[in-house]
Specification:
CATH class of chain B: Alpha Beta
Shape of chain B: globular
Largest sheet of chain B: 6 strands, mixed
CATH superfamily of chain B: LigB-like
Number of domains of chain A: 1
Strand content of chain B: 15-25%
Order of helices and strands of chain A: EHHEEEEHEHEHEHHHHEE
Helix content of chain B: 25-40%
CATH architecture of chain A: 3-Layer(aba) Sandwich
Number of domains of chain B: 1
Low-confidence stretches of chain B: none
Shape of chain A: globular
Number of helices of chain B: 9
Radius of gyration of chain A: 18 Å
CATH architecture of chain B: 3-Layer(aba) Sandwich
CATH topology of chain A: Protocatechuate 4,5-dioxygenase, Chain B
Number of helices of chain A: 9
Oligomer: heterodimer
CATH class of chain A: Alpha Beta
Number of strands of chain B: 10
Largest sheet of chain A: 6 strands, mixed
Helix content of chain A: 25-40%
Structural class of chain A: alpha/beta
Mean pLDDT of chain A: 94
Strand order of the largest sheet of chain A: 7-2-8-1-10-9
Chain lengths: 307, 301
């Protein structure tokens, strides 16, 4: 039961197998079924908007927010092009996108909307929206993951999304598109050979899933740096999606979590999880990372006369 | 059949800003100019290329990022609209390019023989990356040559810069063998910047040159170290320094392009032709070429 602007959160993997090749591997099929289960929950939720943060949409110039009312293209993945093409036509909430940009700027972030025909919407967003909202019944918003952003910037970006939901009186289902462990096999494998890349990745994934199942969103958020060091290939500076998710949904452990599927995707850990706000909490961690409300950018340490 | 050869190697950075600043008819946005040092350098190199006899441009691009091996474009033609995901306000380019599939397949076969994981990309809906398009447009605005595009395998992320250097070297040597047996005359292109830390904010007018400078002095000093070595013909040392340089400056050499090209060309010990150095949104960019032909090799800058 939610009194806030977020009805529930969904965590889904970015890989195209559940969309394009779910019949080739039982695990991919189970992920597909989990996506479809979440799609039914979203249908029944009364959500006004699907708010998507995708780790496969990197940005450099601040934070980009998709604002084309009906982006349409045929997308092909850089690695998995042989699985087929992904034609899409989505419906975006332009009012929300513009409000989100303004709210982000008010909190000190550099943000901008993008509304160009042919803009390359990323694989993760295409997979998530195609499977979670196949008929475009609910308008969506997609926000990028800035390559250089770290915790404070990402937390503030999440809070700006919540500001916008509250200001516009909208109820959202929040969607995070991310792997758990993200190390894929570096060679081609047959679908039936798929498995989590290593025992260590699997162990950490299962520990995260325990936390998710217990609804311990803020605990996972606090462990984010450790998770990044243990099971994330360091393509970016940090494991950010849970910071954003916690900031949008509420930085606490008052959630009912459900793990709908956990499977390998070319070695990476892919899980479909839902988190619904509740009144009870779990966990006893001391949070040692500061909360942050406003992003102040570089602190100009080098120019302050200390050297 | 005559033996194929690499007739020129080019380090050709691909900031979309340079195409934007040129206002070609293929690109939708309009600019007031900017980044002339690099654009004029490119124009001079493009003129040199017009006077060289070659069949195919082979380009290694860091913006087709693959984690499962190295991929090659494998269809004869690609035509579409390329929109830069980072700078969509600057680059929305209508392209129509032809691929030398025979050479791409030969390179793939030689790479596979060398133990490299490879894949041909044969999906007709695939959108060619903007690194390929930008570098090729600036080197050959007429688009009258076939190309081979090679993806950048992200060894650096999965392993280390050292592993990237080793694998890019093996790939370069394999590609050189393929060129030799193909009978083609080939221009090789490593499409990337040197130091690669961007500003995360953009000026209201992106081409406002009063706002353009290198991200910090450390990046500049490293870039100049590399340019000096290129100018002196010490390419072996450039590649040996690559791990340190890449770590220190977040350099786009991490994709392996320059290592690949130098390995294919046998680490030239002659002077590089330097066509220009300038920052673009904080990143360091040099246009350089290696001409194996002593008669046509120049001191440009």
């Amino acid at each position: 039961m939610s009194e806030g602007p977020v009805l529930f959160g969904v965590h889904v993997p970015p890989h195209p197998q559940p969309l394009l090749a779910h019949e080739q591997n039982d695990g991919w099929g189970r992920l597909r079924a989990a996506f479809e289960h979440c799609q039914e929950q979203i249908e029944l939720s009364g959500a006004d908007i699907l708010l998507v943060y995708s780790t496969t949409w990197p940005s450099i110039i601040g934070h980009q927010i998709q604002a084309h009312p009906e982006p349409e293209w045929v997308h092909v993945d850089d690695d998995f092009h042989f699985l087929g093409s992904m034609p899409y036509k989505f419906r975006m909430d332009v009012e929300f996108a513009e409000g989100y940009r303004d709210a982000a700027e008010k909190r000190g972030l550099f943000a901008r909307t993008v509304a160009y025909h042919g803009f390359p919407i990323d694989t993760g967003s295409v997979v998530a929206l195609s499977l979670l909202n196949p008929n475009n019944r609910i308008p969506a918003c997609i926000v990028s993951s800035n390559l250089y952003a770290n915790r404070s910037e990402t937390i503030v970006l999440g809070k700006a999304a919540r500001d916008t939901l509250e200001a516009q009186g909208k109820k959202a289902v929040v969607v995070v598109v991310s792997s758990l462990s993200n190390r894929m096999f570096t060679e081609h494998i047959e679908p039936h050979e798929d498995r989590i890349h290593s025992q260590k990745d699997d162990d950490w994934n299962r520990k995260m899933l325990e936390f998710f199942a217990d609804g311990r969103l803020e605990d996972i958020s606090q462990l984010s740096r450790e998770i990044h060091g243990q099971i994330r290939v360091s393509k970016v500076v940090a494991y950010k999606p849970i910071w954003w998710m916690a900031a949008v949904m509420g930085q606490h452990n008052n959630y009912a979590g459900q793990v709908h599927a956990y499977e390998a995707l070319h070695g990476a850990g892919g899980a479909v999880i839902t988190l619904s706000p509740t009144s009870h909490s779990i966990g006893d961690k001391e949070f040692d990372e500061d909360d942050v409300e406003f992003y102040r950018g570089d602190r100009d340490v080098l120019t302050k006369g200390m050297i | 059949m005559a033996r194929g050869e690499i007739v020129l190697g080019c380090l050709a950075p691909h900031p979309p800003h340079l195409v934007y600043a040129d206002n070609p008819e293929q690109n939708e946005p309009f600019s007031e100019g900017g980044w002339e040092t690099l654009r004029w350098g490119y124009q001079r190199l493009a003129r040199k290329l017009k006077n060289i006899d070659y069949d195919t441009i082979v380009i290694f691009t860091p913006h087709w990022q693959t984690y499962i091996g190295t991929h090659f474009l494998g269809l004869p033609n690609f035509k579409s609209l390329s929109v830069d995901p980072i700078f969509p306000n600057l680059f929305r380019y209508h392209y129509d390019l032809n691929v030398d599939v025979e050479l791409a397949e030969a390179m793939r076969a030689h790479a596979e023989e060398a133990g490299i994981i490879t894949k041909m990309m044969r999906n007709p809906d695939f959108r060619v990356d903007y690194g390929t398009i930008t570098s090729c447009h600036l080197l050959n605005p007429d688009w009258d040559k076939q190309i081979v595009t090679i993806s950048s395998n992200r060894n650096r992320h999965y392993y280390s810069v050292e592993v990237m250097n080793e694998q890019a070297t093996a790939l370069g040597e394999a590609c050189a063998r393929a060129v030799e047996l193909s009978g083609r005359k080939v221009v090789m292109v490593a499409s990337h910047s040197l130091s690669h830390r961007h500003f995360v904010e953009e000026a209201p007018l992106p081409e406002d040159m009063s706002r353009e400078h290198i991200y910090n002095h450390s990046q500049y000093v490293w870039d100049m170290k590399m340019v000096d070595l290129m100018r002196a013909g010490n390419m072996r040392e450039v590649i040996d320094l690559m791990p340190e340089f890449t770590e220190q400056t977040m350099a786009e050499t991490e994709g392996g392009g320059l290592t690949w090209m130098m390995a294919a060309m046998g680490y030239p010990d002659y002077c590089a032709e330097i066509y220009g150095y300038q920052s673009v949104i904080g990143t360091g960019n040099v246009i350089a070429a290696w001409d194996p032909n002593e008669q046509s090799r120049e001191v440009v800058l």
